[in-house]
Amino acid sequence: MDNTNVDRPTFVTHLECGLAGDSYEADTVQRLSQAGKPLLVRYDLEQLGASISKDALARRPSDLWRYREFLPVRRSENIVSLGEVLTPVVALPRLQAGGGQLYVKDEGRLPTGSFKARGLCMAVSMAKELGIRRIAMPTNGNAGAALAAYASRAGIETYVFCPADTPEINVREIAAQGAKVWRVNGLINDCGRIVGQGVETMQWFDLSTLKEPYRIEGKKTMGLELAEQFSWKLPDVILYPTGGGTGLIGMWKAFNELKQIGWIDGPLPRMVAVQASGCAPMVQAYDAGEEFATLWQDAHTVAAGIRVPAAVGDFLILRAVRESQGFATAVDDQAILAAREKAATEEGFLMCPEGAATLAAYHQEVANGRISPDESAVLFNCATGLKYPLPPADQTIDCTQPVPYDTL
Ligand SMILES: *Cc1c(COP(=O)(O)O)cnc(C)c1O
């Protein structure tokens, strides 16, 4: 069954600057607020809450569009979908530290193999709805791949710029899915500058993280989905690998919207922003008690998806972390790779490095007391582990010779 054809009301009232709170018109192309900060989509939550029940929701098809009332697309014909399945929550009993259950939400099952599909199916659907014909984006890989796929499906032209050392598979999948892609000898913020400065000449729409309002709404569905999967009683702690922070900001927005319509109550999960110690601007700002982060110099980590030296939504990430009584923490590459190996060999779960960072952070923070072993915790595996370079496996057998069974 497919519910993308069913027209349902949407409840968007306006857009709002995440910092200053001033209002902007929806239903027209918008980027950042006058203050240069991300715009958040606001809904008539009273009407929204009155229009749907948990029971009605439970009977809908198992995909992201089941949350249609909470989403901005007004007309069903504008929905650009590649089958955004609900992603499973998998228990990791061997890796949990104590009595509190440990889970991983496996976002690698989504189209294009990463949760960037959530944000980009929404942003591209809205681009279609608003008549945008050409899009450009800086990416560390997965966002560009998702953009390429959804935009090709929508018949929108795309230009994608990624750091030269982006995983090879990402660059090729971007090209294979119909985007024009370039490798840039810099980091994602350098790629972002190329996109920003080209807007006038190239007449493209800048779809950089949080520089348009709708990717957050797509990522918000992680929070809606988690709440529904946990029977509207959320776990104690969520560990999120944080780059631009769209998902963390989006989930926090979802929880607050659900709280306002009365679908969840009690304390919300503590949001933990996990970064790599080679690129940890949010951790630095959190520790220093700052509202905004400063540009991280010489960023490096094996977890390409969280190698983001500067995030335009920094204050929204830090606000969510603080409001939720969570914190920000960093793990080093060695711990990330060790955690990936541990999850794969002990639980049969091959994580992406960014997902493995959340596992490493969980163990680190249980050890230093910021997470209790009795708290339930959810990790995020944001992409399939198959997209990333793996350690070599190069043993061979010569089948023309006797097999040396005793040495296997
Ligand atoms: C983009 C990405 C992240 C970071 O997500 P944000 O919501 O932008 O912070 C983490 N892991 C992977 C695999 C990604 O592609």
Which characteristics define this entry?
408 residues, alpha/beta, Rossmann fold, six-stranded mixed sheet, four-stranded parallel sheet, 13 strands, binds pyridoxal-5'-phosphate
Please state the structural category: alpha/beta
* Strand order across the largest sheet: 4-5-13-10-11-12
Radius of gyration computed on alpha carbons: 21 Å
What would the principal axes of the Cα set say about the shape?
globular
pLDDT average, as an integer? 96
Share in β-strands: 15-25%
Rounded to the nearest angstrom, the distance between the terminal CA atoms is 49 Å
Helix content: 25-40%
Q: In the CATH scheme, what's the topology name of the largest domain? A: Rossmann fold
The number of strands is 13
What binds here, in terms of ligands, is: pyridoxal-5'-phosphate
Task: Give the CATH class of the largest domain.
Answer: Alpha Beta
Low-pLDDT ranges: none
Q: What is the number of domains?
A: 3
Q: Which H/E pattern describes the elements?
A: EEEHHEEHEHEHEHHEHEHEHHEHHE
CATH architecture of the largest domain: 3-Layer(aba) Sandwich
Largest sheet: 6 strands, mixed
By DSSP (H or I, 4+ residues per run), the number of helices equals: 13
Structure explained in plain terms:
- There is one protein chain.
- With about 400 residues, this protein is of the alpha/beta class.
- It has three domains: about 10-80; about 90-115 and about 215-385, Rossmann fold, CATH 3.40.50; about 115-205, Rossmann fold, CATH 3.40.50.1100.
- About 35% of the residues lie in helices and about 15% in strands.
- The chain is built from 13 helices and 13 strands.
- The chain has helices spanning about 45-50, 55-60, 115-130, 140-155, 170-175, 190-195, 200, 215-230, 245-260, 280-290, 315-325, 335-345, 355-365, and strands at about 10-15, 25, 40-45, 90, 100-105, 135-140, 155-165, 180-185, 205, 235-240, 270-275, 325-330, 375-380.
- The strands form three sheets. Strands 4-5-13-10-11-12 form a six-stranded mixed sheet. Strands 8-7-6-9 form a four-stranded parallel sheet.
- Strand 10, helix 9 (about 245-260) and strand 11 form a beta-alpha-beta unit.
- The longest helix is centred in the middle third of the chain and has 16 residues, at about 215-230.
- The radius of gyration is 21 Å and the shape is globular.
- The N and C termini lie far apart (about 50 Å).
- The mean pLDDT is about 95.
- The chain binds pyridoxal-5'-phosphate.
- Pyridoxal-5'-phosphate (PLP) binds near residues 245, 306 and 354.
